[in-house]
């Protein structure tokens, strides 16, 4: 495969069809997911390690803002699901647009997005089947640690002995070891799934395959072109690192501008969080996320285009 020509053709398609940047922005805006992990420092926390007054402050905070925090969590979950669906729709649109443009047809943002919505169901199915176990693992990790921390706080409030509280916190270390072991087992599977997933996507969009057939098709493409796929992955890792450094330089001033007022408000308030401080930090985080998605839209659209062109070359070689 001529990688230089592949990258040039990819950039020409994206640059000459600016709506690809919009689709890339929507895909970057909805990127992300649950990350699981754990660790063990080898130290058991006892009740004496909790600073005096911390439990009382936490009780007061949850009494005043508990309902608000829970509501915000549910709103964030709903928004996250919506953004995830938008991301998948944009990914489908980019795949279809590149295929038609490469075939000499014209494509618009509206047409690409319409194709994305029409094939969204099978893309959701592919995601659930391929990444569902990793999401479940992340939820289990988060739930396990949250339950133990809440149990320890509740035991302290109820006047339990220091030994009981220390045992609860100490069990966090054992949980961390178990989760780290499972993460090591899931690591190779995650790499395997990540390599197959882009080609399974293109099988669903361009070959009109179902969920199971798309996953099998993705595996067949990777197996038949393992060397080129590995080189393509390494190429985009290098490009991602270089692009990441450039993005970091751009994002630091925006981070200071967007998050600075919220951090300053917390500092002026003696380190305490109120509705105003939370609103400032949340607003700054949203602005920073939008700027980050706009910058990442360049690499997102370019990478998707390159993978689609490589996929078509793999398929044509097989034929």
Write up what this structure looks like:
- Helix 2 (19-29) packs across helix 9 (275-318).
- This protein has helices spanning 3-16, 19-29, 54-102, 109-118, 120-157, 162-206, 211-224, 226-268, 275-318.
- The two termini are 16 Å apart.
- With 319 residues, it is mainly α.
- The chain has nine helices and no strands.
- The longest helix has 49 residues, at 54-102.
- The chain has one domain.
- Helix segment tally: 9
C-alpha-based Rg, rounded? 24 Å
Number of strands: 0
Number of domains: 1
Strand percent estimate: under 5%
* Poorly predicted residue ranges: 32-55
The pLDDT mean sits at 77
Helical residues, percent: over 70%
Helix-strand sequence: HHHHHHHHH
What's the shape? Answer: globular
Distance between the termini: 16 Å
Q: How many strands, which pairing sense, and closed or not: the largest β-sheet?
A: none
Record the SSE blueprint.
Blueprint: H1 3-16, H2 19-29, H3 54-102, H4 109-118, H5 120-157, H6 162-206, H7 211-224, H8 226-268, H9 275-318
Helix pairs in contact: 1-9, 2-3, 2-9, 3-4, 3-5, 3-6, 3-9, 5-6, 5-7, 6-7, 8-9
């Amino acid at each position: 495969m001529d990688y230089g020509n592949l990258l040039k053709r990819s950039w020409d398609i994206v640059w000459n069809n600016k709506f690809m940047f919009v689709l890339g922005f929507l895909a970057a805006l909805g990127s992300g997911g649950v990350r699981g992990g754990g660790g063990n420092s080898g130290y058991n926390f006892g009740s004496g390690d909790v600073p005096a007054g911390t439990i009382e402050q936490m009780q007061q905070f949850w009494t005043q803002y508990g309902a608000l925090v829970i509501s915000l969590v549910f709103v964030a979950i709903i928004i996250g699901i919506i953004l995830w669906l938008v991301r998948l729709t944009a990914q489908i649109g980019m795949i279809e647009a590149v295929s038609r443009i490469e075939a000499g047809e014209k494509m618009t943002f509206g047409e690409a997005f319409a194709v994305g919505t029409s094939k969204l169901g099978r893309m959701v199915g592919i995601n659930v089947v391929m990444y569902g176990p990793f999401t479940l693992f992340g939820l289990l990790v988060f739930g396990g640690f949250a339950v133990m921390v809440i149990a320890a706080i509740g035991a302290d409030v109820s006047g339990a002995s220091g030994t009981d509280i220390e045992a609860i916190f100490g069990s966090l270390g054992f949980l961390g070891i178990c989760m780290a072991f499972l993460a090591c087992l899931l690591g190779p599977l995650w790499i395997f799934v990540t390599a197959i997933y882009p080609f399974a996507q293109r099988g669903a969009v361009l070959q009109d395959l179902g969920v199971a057939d798309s996953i099998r098709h993705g595996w067949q493409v990777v197996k038949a072109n393992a060397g080129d796929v590995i080189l393509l992955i390494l190429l985009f890792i290098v490009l991602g690192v270089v692009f990441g450094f450039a993005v970091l330089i751009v994002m630091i001033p925006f981070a200071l501008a967007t998050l600075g007022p919220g951090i300053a408000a917390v500092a002026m308030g003696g380190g305490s969080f109120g509705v105003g401080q939370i609103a400032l930090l949340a607003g700054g985080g949203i602005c920073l996320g939008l700027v980050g998605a706009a910058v990442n839209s360049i690499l997102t659209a370019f990478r998707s285009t390159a993978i689609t062109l490589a996929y078509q070359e793999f398929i044509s070689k097989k034929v």
